[in-house]
Write a structure and sequence with these properties.
Rossmann fold; 4 domains; five-stranded parallel sheet
């Protein structure tokens, strides 16, 4: 339903329009009338009609001047000017003001009806477009939210390469920085403190059994989860963070949210202060609106390829015993930040590189560990921590299908019996090198088999309705991965290969001169002879008919 306001100083004109509208339109309703330009302006301010039909000659402010003022406050309104004046100057002014139609009195019923129908159609189109834009915006927001969550997962679980991370940050989030830091936030309802106090007082010992204690704890944990289950709270957190800094906000994971903040490396102290201040401002906003308390841990600034380190630092800061709602890793006392933790971070980087088969990076990281701890051989805690790391590396090798006939006990006996730092480092380096090389070789072998199987399926089924999805489903991998893998390994994409095989088959059949062009088309996997002919000429330089004549003539 659309609303119409009729503006004319002659009541007979107003009644005439009312009669026509009520008889001809079920989707237009006259909601107001005005007998002067001023009255039209004042009523527009309050009722905002969809359509205004106005005369030019009215007492006081004339129709065109009224239109000018109305457009200032309600620019989307459709306006039809009705006047006895045929002057070009008036029509020109009306066009400049964006008037939809200029009608000359007396207006025929058919002309008025046609004009209003055309305007209604325009309004219908505009409303459809507006709804579509809202729906599109909503879909984009949902998509970006999903991309945002996937991005955080990829960062934390090392599922994306540095180039992919940089590209997604630029394309989806308009972030150019290649460095940043992680913030881990936890929220809890303030009555959670009651639980902590009861635990401190050992009241759980008074429970009849462990199950009763667990039920009591779970009831508190449920209330804790409820604080983040509130979508409004999460949205408010997200919007406030994005207002204050360039960041990517992850999903709620148990009782916490992980945030990636883009930040160039500059004055590290000043940046630490600013980061803490930013988080405090956001939390103050949330605490005023919700009955919650929070704690945040902040990691150091790292490159995207090492952002997992910042995440681990943020967790360590979050779980520390330091007072305060917000703890930066650099504010933790020196005795808390132990060497074992630093080796753990390097171990994670080493394992990621190992699983990727990046031999050189593996050796660089291992060298960094030994370089940073030159006296490890004399320090039992560090010495045994590196041995534990080597055990993790052998586990990764097993998980990647790398079998070693040597008994694990023999290997560890060998490194435990090393008599010097150099001998120990050499054994570890050679072990890492061999495992990384075997993993990359295995990956290449698997890739080669996938490419080989893809080519075999193309050669077997090119005459069928074959596509990338069919092949990837049979190979149990995603179409996107297969497409990227095939292109990287062969230098051509899947459809190029399939087309090449089909065209070669067509050339062979045409030379045999046993089938018609249409039959050759179908036997080569195409259903449209016209399309087949165009494609054939594009690749061969001749039409199928000309190619056949040339081939037979040459024979």
């Amino acid at each position: 339903m659309y609303s119409l306001m009729v503006c004319d100083d002659e009541q007979i004109m107003i009644e005439s329009v009312r009669h026509i509208v009520e008889k001809e339109f079920s989707n237009i309703r006259i909601i107001a009338t005005a007998r002067s330009g001023r009255e039209a302006i004042e009523k527009t301010l309050t009722i905002k009609p969809d359509i205004i039909l106005t005369d030019i000659k009215m007492p006081g402010i004339n129709g065109l001047d009224a239109v000018k003022e109305i457009k200032k406050v309600h620019n989307d309104v459709k306006i039809v000017v009705v006047s006895v004046y045929e002057f070009f100057e008036y029509a020109k002014q009306a066009v400049e003001l964006g008037v939809s139609e200029y009608l000359i009195k007396p207006v025929k019923k058919e002309r008025l009806v046609d004009t209003l129908r055309r305007i209604v159609n325009q309004l219908d189109d505009e409303r459809r477009k507006y709804r579509w834009e809202l729906e599109a915006k909503e879909r984009i927001e949902k998509m970006l939210s999903a991309v945002e969550h996937s991005f955080i997962y990829s960062l934390l679980f090392a599922q994306a390469q540095k180039n992919d991370i940089s590209r997604y940050k630029k394309e989806f989030f308009d972030i150019d920085n290649e460095t940043g830091f992680i913030v881990v936030l936890t929220f809890r309802k303030k009555d959670r403190k009651e639980w902590n106090d009861r635990v401190d007082r050992k009241e759980w010992k008074d429970c009849e059994g462990r199950n009763e204690w667990k039920v009591m704890k779970d009831s508190y944990d449920t209330r804790l989860g409820d604080s983040f289950a509130d979508e409004e709270l999460y949205t408010l957190l997200k919007n406030n963070l994005k207002h204050r800094c360039k960041c990517i906000v992850g999903p709620v994971m148990l009782d916490r949210v992980v945030v990636y903040v883009a930040q160039s490396i500059g004055d590290l102290y000043q940046q630490r202060v600013q980061a803490i201040s930013c988080i405090e401002e956001v939390m103050d906003v949330l605490e005023k609106k919700y009955d919650i308390e929070f704690k945040a841990g902040i990691g150091r600034i790292h490159g995207d390829e090492d952002i997992m380190i910042s995440y681990q630092e943020a967790l360590k800061a979050l779980n520390s015993d330091e007072d305060g709602r917000i703890v930066h890793i650099d504010d933790i006392a020196p005795d808390i930040y132990d060497i074992g933790y630093e080796i753990s971070l390097l171990e994670q980087k080493l394992i990621i590189s190992l699983e990727n088969g990046d031999v050189q990076r593996c050796l660089t990281i291992l060298s960094d560990i030994f370089r940073k701890h030159p006296n490890f051989f004399e320090q039992d805690s560090i010495h045994y921590r590196i041995i534990e790391m080597m055990a993790a590396i052998r586990r990764i090798a097993t998980e990647n299908g790398i079998r070693d006939n040597t008994e694990p006990g023999c290997y560890f006996k060998r490194i435990l019996c090393c008599r010097s730092r150099e001998e120990f480092e050499q054994i570890c380096t050679e072990e890492v090198r061999q495992i990384a090389c075997r993993i990359i070789a295995r990956k290449k072998s698997n890739i080669g088999k996938l490419v080989e199987m893809t080519n075999r399926l193309i050669n077997e089924r090119f005459s069928q309705d074959l596509n990338l999805e069919d092949i990837s489903k049979e190979l149990h991998i995603s179409p996107q991965y297969l497409s990227r893998l095939y292109k990287n390994e062969t230098g051509e994409n899947f459809i190029e290969r399939l087309t090449s095989v089909r065209i070669e088959n067509a050339k062979k059949l045409l030379k045999e001169n046993r089938y018609s062009i249409k039959e050759v088309c179908y036997m080569s996997g195409y259903s449209d002879p016209n399309y087949f002919s165009k494609l054939f000429k594009k690749h061969v330089g001749l039409s199928p008919t000309d190619f056949q004549k040339q081939a037979l003539g040459g024979a």
